[in-house]
Structure formats: structure tokens, C-alpha cells
Amino acid sequence: MRAREPDAEGHVDRDGVKLHYEVFGAGSPTLLLLPAWNVVNARFWKAQVPYLARHFRVVTYDGPGNGRSSRPLDPAPYSYEAEGRSAVAVLDDTGTDRSVLVSLSMGADWALWMAARHPERVLGSVFIGPSVALGEPEVPEGPPFDEPYVSTEGWAKYNRHYWLDHFEDFLEFFFAQCFSERHSTKQIEDCVGWGLESTPEVLIAMEGAPRPDEATVRGWCAASRCPVLVVHGDKDRISPLRSGRALAEATGGALVVVEGGGHIVLARDPVKVNLLIREFAGALAAGRRP
Amino acid sequence: MTAVEELPGARTVPEQTRARYPDAIGYAERDGVRLFWERYGDGETTVFLLPTWSIVHARVWKAQIPYLARHYRVLTFDGRGNGRSDRPAGAGAYTEREFAADALAVLDATATRRAVLVSLSCGALWATLLAADHPDRVTGAFYICPAVGLAPPHPERAVHSFLEPLDTDEGWARYNQHYWLRDYRGFLEYFFGRCLTEPHSTKQHEDCVGWALEIAPETLIDSHRGLLLCGLEQFRESCARVRCPVLVVHGDEDAIRPHAQGAALAEAAGGRLVTLAGVGHLPQARDPVRVNLLIREFAESLNGRAT
Q1: Which value does ipTM take for this structure?
Q2: What's the pTM?
């Protein structure tokens, strides 16, 4: 059961990959809540949608590989360029000229790509726990992804063969790392459930897609002209706070540090995150720079 | 906004941020015992969130206050023995009559002519006394998982003595005064585990254990023995005298007090019963939206009477 059901839904078809989107509310401007890693689907925004839709028009969609979207098994649809184009296609199909982008974790790459390549479509960009190649690797160094695993402990689970053998165990480990806050059992259970809607094969396909290097990311940041807000937990074990700080510096954006916050603060500190998004988007709607 | 630490009588334990702070606070005093009350909002109808057993204090209503105060004037107070109220010694200080008299004193101290009573668990005892003995002050009685002896307890809770030393610490054997003095925290962890049987209750569990650590086990023993003094026949007689509208909400997986007790109270007091499927003993904490909406619906249904 949902706190709020969509007012409209549909899908776009991109080279045979179907992407399912939902539209909530009718306010202005439109917020596009981007997908993240395909280990989750658009329901990870569940604590944002009901609130934000009271004030704005909200569009969400399932990225390729999860939810009600296709499950492609080749890497192409997961490249940052394909993901960015998919987001633009959703804007087109929902009749959205311009929107405020809200992204989590690796969704940051696609939001940056959009702001650099399609600046006329992006009013502003909110990054939550961004995983971007600015200085630091996003995941602690572990054993190689493609080689047979020799350990089953900790980040050794981040391994193609381990995923195929013990997918649910990997999901439980990974989301326990995402939620470093106490009292996160419900959020972990939700995320593991969404992870199980995907498959290890689909995650492996995405792992094979190119990620932008630091020079590319810096290029996007330099080309980006829209207002930026970065929200980052100082206990984020997936993407360190310094990444968020570097992104805010590179884009000239504001940084809000959530004390004690983990990687997915939007689920564990939804009121704070919602108010920050509203303040940011509300200022843009009023023609002010946030 | 006033930080609670700055309020008179602030507890020594640091408090979490609140979603809503009181608009007025104060003490009612009765026979030298000070009772700390809080008032929120200024609606025409007063909703009086009563204390329950002194193992917790008024923060047990934290998920009700911010919502209800948008519609009503909301009163709470810390039951004697916990929170910022005094901690008199002796079982005789913790009978249901003392709590009922305390509640009346708070109504008087806050110039509240009448109120909708909302009670939880043991609070049912004093809510019933108030409704029976002071019908002019009570417009309706809303009970949540009432702890009333109108139906048998869970069989596993009837095995062990509370007063006598036991040779086991397993399960409900921890509901024993000697165990409380030996391993109070062990009792609390177990007891609130049984109160909060729903998954994802870690936060509520931690809250409750924290509140329970604000009362000493010796005082908790007094408060429990005080409640043991409540006679069943007297209580039945009080129920029969309740004339105001009554609604009883009870979880069908309440591991502290069987659902049958709530059903029996609804029948004895001539009220309606709402059964919450899959819910344990503290639905105001684990199912707050549903409970809040039920309280509001109940209070609205009294509107003709409340004025």
C-alpha cells in the first residue's frame, strides 16, 4: 500500500528497453526524481513522493533493470550516456520542458550529464549522497570483481560470482552498509526486497557499463550552470562525504551535511531531506537562486 | 521554541528533539506529590492522554501529540513515579485511585472542565474510575489495549509469582521483583520485546527502555504492587457505571494483555471494539497514524456532547 498513488503513469521505449514512469501532483516546477543503481527501483523515493507532490509535480521512473522497467542483460542501456538520454526521454514523454533533478548516489552522473548536455532542461539539481569520481573511489578497495572470490567477508561480497551464488546475502550486506544509522531494519528490508526484483545477471550487466572518469565529471561540473544543492551524510560508508564536498565545490553549489547520516539519508531522515528539496525547488519556482 | 532542557524540573537524561513542544507546562500538587503536566494546542475539545503504568512517562504519547494538537487542546502528565513527577514510596501511593485523583488534579490545575480520555494499558483502570465517578468531567473514554482483569491473562504470564524468589530467569519469570532488583535492564529488554512484537520496532523498544530507566526498580515494584491492589469486583462495578461513549482498540497479537480483555471491557462499559490485526501492545507507537485517526474520529463523534 502506498501513501500516495500516481496520477498518471506510462512508459517510454528506448531501443527496445521499456522504462516505466509515474507522475504525481500538478504543482510547479516539475521535480524529476532520477533512478540510482539498478539494485533499487523508483520506490526508494517513497518517503519523498507524498510530501513533494503536495507542492510540485513529481516524476519518477524505474531505471533499466528493476521495477516495472525492462531487465536488459547487455551493458549498453546502463552507460551514463544511455541513462542520461533515458531521463531526457522521460521528460519528453511526460511533456516536461524543464525540471529540477533530484538524484541519489550514482544517479549523480546522469544528473550531471543532463545539466552539461541539456542545460535548457534543467532548472536546478539536488544531489543526495552523490557517488561521483571526484578524487576517491566510491567503494572501499576489495578483491577483483570478476575473479572467483576467495573470501566471503565484507566487501569481498562485491563480486560477480558471489552475486550469482549468494545474491540475497550480498544485498543484506550492502544495504546494511548503506544504512549506518540505528533503527534502519525497515529501510534495509525494503531495499533488499527491491534488490530481489532485479537479478545478479542484471547487476552484472550494469557493472560492465562505462563509468565516467574524473576528467569527464569535472568537465560536466564546469559546464553546469544551474543551481546545485548537495546533501551528504557524514557517516556515509558507500560514498564518502568528501565526494559530496568536492561536487559542491566543482559546481559552485551549496553543501548540507547531515550529521550521523548514512548513504541513503532520504529514507532515514526524510523530513529533513524533503524540507531541503522543497526549499531549493520553491526558491527556483519563485525565480530566486536558492 | 523552548528547549526542554531549559524547562523547570528538566530531567537529567538528555531528551531527543520533539516534533512539537508544549504551549504550557506546570505542576499539579496533591498530598505533597507533584505531577508534571504539559498542554499543547488550543482546540475547543480537550483530549487528555492519561499516564499508564509508571514504567514509562508521558513521552509514550509522542506520536499522538503533534497530530492531535493540530485539532484539539491536548493534555498529558507524567504518572507518579516517572518523568518529571515525584516518586512517592510505598505500594499504597500507586493504586488506581491515586492515579485517578492525580488526573482530576491535573484537570483542575489546567482549568479543564471536561475532556476526552485516552488511556493505554493500565491507564484503563483510572480512566474507568474517572468516567464512572466524574461523569461531568469526561465526555468519552478511548481505551488502547486495556490491561483489565475482565478476561484471563495469557497462560504463560500466570505461571510465575511476582513476589516470591524464582529458580529461573527464563521468559516471563523475569516479571518478578527479585529479578528486577538483580537485572533491571534484562527485565526491560524482555518486557518491551513482548510489548513490541511487530518487526522494525527497534526505535520504539529503545525509547521505552530509556523511559523505564528513569524510574528505579524499587519504585517500579511499588507501582506494580499498588496496581495489584485493584480488586476485580470493584472494577466491574465501575465499568457498569460508565455512561459516556466508549471505544476500545486492541491488537489481536497483544502479548501483554489478551485481546479478550479489551473485548470484555468494551462489553462491560457498553462501548465499541476495534480490533487491530497483527498489532501488539503498543499500537500508539507502532501504528500511530491509524490510532491517531481513530482518536480523532472518536473525538469528532462526541462533538455534540463536548460543548
Answers
A1: 0.73
A2: 0.84
The answer to whether the Cβ–Cβ distance between B206 and A186 falls below 8 Å is: no
Query: What does the pLDDT look like over A206-265, one tens digit per residue?
Result: 999 999 999 999 999 999 999 999 999 999 999 999 999 999 999 999 999 999 999 999
- The three-class DSSP label of residue B164 is coil
B206 touches A: beta carbon within 8 Å: yes
Q: Do residues B270 and B242 touch, judged by C-beta distance below 8 A? A: yes
Q: CB of A111 within 8 A of CB of A128?
A: no
Contact B202 A183 (CB under 8 A): yes
Chain A hits for B202, CB-CB cut-off 8 Å, are: 182-183, 185
Of B167, B209, B162, B207, which Cα lies nearest the Cα of B190? B209
pLDDT tens for A87-107 read 999 999 999 999 999 999 999
Q: What is the rounded CA–CA span in Å between residue A261 and residue B159?
A: 46
Q: What is the CA radius of gyration of chain B?
A: 18
**Partner-chain contact B202 A189, CB within 8 Å:** no
Question: Going edge to edge, which strands form the sheet with B246-251?
Answer: B24-30, B33-40, B73-77, B46-49, B115-120, B138-144, B246-251, B272-276
